[in-house]
Structure formats: structure tokens, C-alpha cells
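Consider the following assembly input.
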Amino acid sequence: MGKKSSNQNVVRYNRWGYIFLIPFIAVYVVFQLVPLVTTIYNSFFENYRSGLTQVGPNFVGLANFVKIFQQGDILKYTGNTMIMWILGFVPQIIVSLVLGAWFSDPSLRLKGQRFFKTVIYLPNLIMASAFAMLFFTLFADSGPINSILMNIGLISKPYTFMSHIWSVRVLVAFMNFLMWFGNTTILLMAGMLGIDTSLFEAAQVDGATPTQIFFRITLPLLRPILIYVMITSLIGGLQMFDVPQILTNGSGDPVRSSMTLIMYLNKHLYSKNYGMGGALSVILFIITGILSLIVFKTTAQNKD
Amino acid sequence: MNKKILSLALATGMALSMGAAAFAEEAAEGKVLNIYCWNEEFKTRLTDHYPGYEVVDGTHGKIGDVDVVWNITPSDDNAYQNNLDETLLGQADAADDAKIDLFLVEADYALKYVDTDFTMPVADLGITEDELAQQYQYTKDIMTDSNGVLKGVSWQGCPGVLIYNREAAKEVLGSDDPDTVQEAVKDWDTFSATAAQMAEAGYKMTATVNDAYRVFSNNVSGQWVQDGKIVIDDNLMTWVDMSKAMVDAGQTTTAELWSDDWSKGFYPDGKVFCYFGPAWMINFSMAADVEGSIANLGGWGATVGPQGFFWGGTWIAAAAGTDNPTLVADIMRQLTTNEQIMTDIVKADSDFVNNKAAMEAAAEDDSYAFAVLGGQNPLAMFCAGAETIDLSNLSAYDQGCNEEFQAAMKNYFDGNADLDTALGQFYTAVEEKYPELTH
């Protein structure tokens, strides 16, 4: 009898959980699930507008997917996106780890921590488009960076940053790095502060060097946070759009070498091409899924 | 439908006997005039020159008892057209006071709207061909649909000239006289030869390759799209070859128009020999009010250049389904056919107006000399240029094709791609914009 009533109590209590979940589910269904399903649905149709003339929607099966892979440009854009993401992510994670370790190390007694934590987070508060616009002006052919380089005699005539493949890619990566390393530092620092301090003390007592402590204690225990940072950054990286879009004025130049997947998607929206746009989104969805899985598997495999 | 025919009939009858009928007619028409445009220019013209226009606030005005509502969306990133397209597509279902009555278009995409039923023939508004006789033919060609029906009118003409740096002309060509300079830029071969001379003296011939693009693209021998296929005109390939040679020889750059790198030639230190532009560029875009600029010193000269061209201009179109046809017609009449108002626009706003008689009179009048040009009056050149522009080869795809062609060729000029790769990029980009096209 007593057991049964306690079961009922649990059920009754659980009900509140479901009620509290309703707002999230409702928002999720309206703004995530429905768009997701309609995107997949749209990807099987020819549906675009030329000028003011609407074409379709006509069911075309997998024709949109076939067309994307036949053109083959998607591989190039995936490559561009990954290159620019890695160029930005590698320095970002290294700098963040170092800064996080310093900030969370009580024995260093860093002064003005709060000030620096705010400062490194600040670039993230600027709108990405404004930030890209700023860099576009700074690195213009007759911009201040070129004037400085010429005045100190490093170069004799302006370097056309926007006309070289790698200078554009590095600039995009650098901006993403600047915007996100503060955020990553704070995440990693939170993870490091969550590690039991007795482990560090024990290691110190045993005579471990700071390097050993970092690699043998901090890093392994930080793994869950690291995985989280990697996956969110990867997804964010695949969706890279605003910075290269503004910096290259939507062209992804030179020769579309800095065109990311989402910029490619955006190109199809000029003609309201929901068919091709949908197909591309579905492919992007699958790529994101696979890459996240790989990251998750490789970083989590030592756990068991 | 009956209502529409009735109001059209009324409007036409109205047009024939303006005046007495006006009050009765206005009562039958809508109380709200919705105007779609992308900047303040037309609003300023209407405010300053349309009889009886009263300002209410930044986006509202009043003509008689009709409220004028301005819907201004900037052109950046195609926002203006996107907004206009959506509203036009919903025009049939919109309430009368929410319908677009009048909207503005630019030449690059005019046909996109003109060649549809969303724009109203000017003749249906009661405006006759005779009334438009003083307008330049090219301004009408742009607004004529594939059936030969005129769908819009403009108060501006924008024929362009070659604007040259007098200082550089004196130094390199020995004289800054327009005839001497014209001799050195009379066709593209001579132009290239002069570019080499300019480079030796440390001057760039043009600020960027895109300066001359328009001159070539206005003089093509066929449309961009023929039978659903993208066709690159020979004249544009001439531009590509000439530009590549000039970039390689350091005689010009690949900067974008309107960029800082483009406009630094407005100052003596920028060392640029010439720009291509119409009256509005000379007056408003070359930093004339900045101390030390060439324009401020009156250091530019104007000459006809290798080929005639135009740049810019705004056209007024009536949206099909408008409930204010009489008022729309009257706005078109006052601004684009009333010689007195048009002469006022020339005086007040330095526009080159779309009225042959007014402009030819101004060309003879020394009071119209441009300070920016060191006292030269270039209007005769503009008048002659406006007569020669031939725009029979426009298509609805021009905006997309021209933008993408210049963007793709920049890679070729910069040495990041060979010609075939750059052309490939052009085709890809255009087919993204217009999925129905092939090459």
C-alpha cells in the first residue's frame, strides 16, 4: 500500500516536470523541428523565383542533390570552411588553455584578473559584421595597416590583402580567433576551477612540475569541457558566415577561396531557390552530424 | 475588374481635360499614396518641386487631402528589390490604401519590373507620346517592355563623359584643352597608348578597371541572355583584354567602385588621370567640398571619351492596381515633362534633366559652367552624348550579370585565376542567381 502511494506521488511529482518542459518543447517545435522538416521537404522540389516569376514548386526527387554533387563546388566550400575554422581554432584553444591555466592557478596570484577576463571577452560583444567591416577598412589597399607597414619600411608598395587567397583566409581565421578565445577561456577556466584542488596539492607534494600537472591532471580531467568546446566550436565553424561574408562583400573572393558553406547557401537565396537551398542545408546537417560524431568518438574513447 | 476599367476610363478622360474635373476625380480615388524607393532623392525632388506637396514628417507628406507614405528601403544587398517584390506579389490581395501606387527603379534592373504586368503602361495613365517628346530616347528605351510599351519615365538624364585631371594632361599631353585630351582618348587603342604614357609619368590611367566597364557594357552588340543561354559580348571581352594588360602594366587597379582606393584619385596625391562619369558624379561624388581635392581646386576637365555611355538615373513607374492613377500621372507629368519645373531642378539640384529643350538652352548658358571643371560648361557634351546612347540590348538579367562579371574578372586581373577559371566562376555565380539559365 505504502509503496503504491509513493509511486503515485512520484508520477504526480513528475507531471510538474512535463509542465515545465512545455515552453521549451513548444518553442523547439515551432522554431526548430518544423523548419527542419520543411527544409528536408523543400529539398525535393524545384522552387525558385526568377525576377518576379515564380517557378515551381515541382517535385523533382533527388535532382537538387544530384546537381549539387555534379557541380562539385560543395567540396571546395567545405574545404574552405574547415581550413578557416582550423586556422582559427588551433590558436584559440592553445591560447585559451594557457590563459585558463594561469587564471585558475591560485599560486600565480595574478593581479587584475577580473579586468583581463572582461577585456578578452570584449571582442565577442562587437557585432561580427561591424568587426569584419573594421578589418576590411584596416586592411584596405590604402588602409592604415598598409601605411604603417610602408612607413616602417617593411614593404615598398601596398600589399593587397583582399586579393590574396591566404591573406583573406588568415584574416577571417584571426577575427574568429579574436572573437572567440575569450569565451573559450572562460569555459575552460570554469572547467579547471571545477577540478578538486586536493589533486593539484597531492601532485605538488609528490614533486610534479607545473608542466606535468597540466598534462597529467588538468587536461585529462578537463576532457568533458574540451569535447563540449570542440563540438560547439566545430558547429559554429561550419556555420561560419558573417565575418567572411562582410569581409569579402559576399563574393568569397579571391576565386571563392574564402566562400564558406553558408555563404554558398546564401547565394541560392538571391533567387529564393528553396529547393537548392534546402538540399544544401540537408547536406550541411549530415556533415555536421558526422563531424560531431567523429569528434565525440575520438575524444571520448579512452573513457572506458 | 469593372471598377478598374471605370477608374482607368476616368483617369484617361481626366488627363484630356485637366483642371475642372480634378476635384470630382480625386474624391473617387484613394486617400493614401504609397511610394516605394531606396533613398531620399526622389522625396527631395517631390518636396521641393511638386506644387502643393506638404511635409508631415520624415516618411509622410500630403498632397491635397491625399496622404503620401514613403517606404524607403536601401538598395544594399538587394533589400529594396526584395521588399518591393514581396509587396508587388501581394498587390492583388492588398487593401486599396495598402497598394503600392508608385515606385522607382534603376536602369540595371528596370526590365525585371517593366517586362511584367506589375507596372502600368504610361499611356494608360493618359500621358501621350507628344508630352514625352522632349525626353531623351534612351531614357524611354530602358522603360520599354518587350512589346514596345512604355512603362515609366524619368526626370533625369545621366549621359557620361570622360573626366580628366588637368594637371596630368598638361604634364603628359602638353595641354589640358578638351580637344587635345579627346585626341588622346578617342578610341580604346589610343586610350591604351595614353595609359602607357601616363604610367611613365607616375599616373594611373583610371582608378580601377571598373571605371571603364560601364562604357563597354553600354555598347554591346547583343543581350546578356539569348535563348536561355548566357552570352558574353565581344565588347566585354575587349574590356577584359584591355584591363588585364593595364593591370599587369600597373596602369590601373582592381579596386571596387566607391571604395577608398577608388576615391583617393579625387586628390592630387592619388595620381589618377581620369574617371568616367555623368553630371551627378562631377557635382556630388568627387569630394568637391573637401579642401585640397582636385574638384575643390577646379582641376578637372571633361571630354567625350572613347564611347558614349550613361550611368545611373531613376525612373518612376506606376504600379498596376494603383488606386491613385490621376495623382501618379500628375507627378510624372510635373516632374518629367514640365519644362519650368525641370529648369528649376537644374538650377536647384544640378541634375541633368530629361528635357532636350531645357538642357540645350543650359548648354549655351555660361552661368551653368561647372566650378569643379575649372569653369568649363560640359552640358553640350552631355546633350550630344545622351542622343547617341543605344540601349536596345538591355535585358532583365543585366544587374546580376554585370555584377558577377566584374567580380569574377577581378580574380583574373589579380592573377588568382586564369581566364577560363574566372569565366567558370562567372557562369556559376549567374546560374545561382538565375537558376533557369545555362551556358
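The radius of gyration of chain B is 23 Å. Ask yourself how this observation constrains the way the partners meet.
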